[in-house]
Amino acid sequence: MRLYEIIILALLLPPLLWALFSRQRPNWLAAFPTAGALFTILHLFVEGYRWQMVPAYGLTAVFLILATRWAGGTQNGPRLSWLLALLGLLTWLIAVALPVAMPVPQLPDPTGPYAIGTFTTYLVDETRPETYTTDPNDNREVMVQVWYPAASREDEPAQYLEALDVAGPVIAEQFDLPAFLLNHINLTELDVWQDAPAASEGAPFPVIIFSHGLTGIRMQNTVMVRELVSHGYIVGAVDHSYANALSIFPDGRVFVYDPSRIFPSGRSNPTEANPLVHVWADDIAFLLDTMAVWQEAEGHVLYGRFDFNHVGIFGHSTGGGATVQFCLQDGRCQAGVGLDSWLLPVDETVLTQGLDQPFMFISTPEWLGTENKTRGETILNDLRQDGYALSLANTAHYDFTDLALLSPLTPQLGLSGTINSRYSLEIQNEYLLAFFNRTLKGQAAPLLDAPSPYPELTIKRN
User: Fold this and answer.
1) Span 310-332, average pLDDT
2) 46: part of which helix (H) or strand (E)?
3) Distances in Å between the alpha carbon of 172 and those of 59, 261, 387, 428?
4) Could you give phi then psi for residue 243, rounded to 5 degrees?
5) Residue 82's pLDDT is what?
6) Which phi-psi region, left, alpha or beta, contains residue 452 (left: φ > 0; alpha: ψ -120 to 50)?
7) Cα→Cα distances 169→184, 219, 229, 366, 439, Å
């Protein structure tokens, strides 16, 4: 819970207990609901309204009305009935439970020196027909978000999830969650600035592209992206249209995930996913091509800021497979990271040809099943450069995204393992940054060579 929320709930407790157990109404008791009302106003203006606090707002209003009777002096009166007493106590418990169970996510602070800017843009690849629509004249359309080192922290704060009124219910539905669960997500403090001027000190910056998972979204790994950018990287993410949770195009068209587009057989399988990872790998290539145009475009916020001699790719789940596919076919990839990667859809040539780039896998111990894990270990063993396979105990598939930070109840909902989610992401950030610092910046990274300092983490090296 946030500070003012805690204060409001604490101020409600003394008048509630007094009303339950005493007939005396001392005049000083009115100070609590009065202060509660003042802090509620501060909370609404500073922290922002969220529906999880509605019971607390209601109790504050009730006690403020009662305070007008108490303020005149000590009064005697009948105790509240047991029914009203229990109702008041139950309401207070609900008022505490809701913001605890569904808090405003608190993201780990970036550890690097750079401020972080971002922008979102709509791109059309005129050279590629769209294979997931019925119109043969359609070209591939994608939404792209880019984060970059910014010159200052004085611009408009960026939102975590754009078009929240449309996107929130759709994304919640993908995970079988109540539609209202993400209504408060944009109260999250990102320390990211919308359309901020780019930093010039330290430029040009190495480039990293992120690829989300099936039914994922481009900002699903904001924790990792912020950490990388704060240390002097430009990070771009493609919303892989039709296989992401949803795409909202500038003309108002909205497309949500429809599995029949991707898997005509009606079930997820590597054979039908193989064309998908090719499309996603081409999306990554298209974004890099577009960035090369921005590099030469005077007036663009990132004009002259890209270092295309140092390009890394990372992805989650199917996006991890797309990362491997891209690095297999495009020499611009100089380092790759897969987060609990689904590798079975990747071309079989990865097993005979191997990868030329250094690579890191970070996964659950199960790694999406025995067959997938075996393929990952084969890829690791056949690398021509340094390779690392990190296994993080007590994690589940979505522990490698921000989703695990949305609620302390994600383990009960099957969305995360039993590991502390914040701790898990901090470990992942540490190794992700060390890997890219070594492979793209040539910096020393003793963490990669030393035994794991974390009991939950095991490391295999090639």
Assistant:
1) 98
2) none
3) 29, 21, 36, 25
4) -115, 0
5) 57
6) beta
7) 12, 16, 29, 30, 39
CA atoms within 13 A on the CB side of 226: 22
Beta bridge partner(s), residue 461: 388
Parallel/antiparallel/unpaired status of strands 205-211 and 254-256: unpaired
Indicate whether 195 pLDDT > 90: yes
pLDDT tens digits for 145-159? 999 999 999 889 999
Beta bridge partners of 121: 144
Residue 23 in tokens: 């007939």
Give the phi and the psi of residue 107 in degrees, each rounded to 5: -80, 145
Cβ neighbours around 277 below 10 Å, total: 30
Alpha carbon distance, N-terminus to C-terminus of the chain: 44
The crossing angle, in degrees rounded to 10, of helices 54-70 and 82-101 is: 140
Q: Rounded to the nearest 5°, which phi and psi values hold at 420?
A: -65, 120
CA distance 278 to 283: 9
Burial class (CB in 10 A: 0-12, 13-18, 19+), 455: exposed
Q: Which of 355-377 are b and which e, b meaning 16 or more Cβ less than 10 Å from the residue's Cβ?
A: bebbbbbbbbeebbeeebbebbe
Identify which of 411, 378, 395, 419 has the alpha carbon closest to the alpha carbon of residue 316.
395
CA distance 364 to 293: 38
The pTM (predicted TM-score) of the whole model is 0.89
Give the model confidence (pLDDT) of 381-432 as tens digits. Answer: 999 999 999 999 999 999 999 999 988 888 988 889 999 999 999 999 999 9
DSSP, res 43: I
Quote helix, strand, coil % in the chain, to nearest 5: 40, 20, 40
Q: For residue 209, give the nearest of 127, 282, 111 by alpha carbon.
A: 282
Render pLDDT for 20-33 as a digit per residue (tens, 0 to 9).
Answer: 776 666 777 788 88
The dihedral of CA 169, 171, 174, 175: what is its sign?
A: negative
Residue 80 has pLDDT above 60, yes or no: no
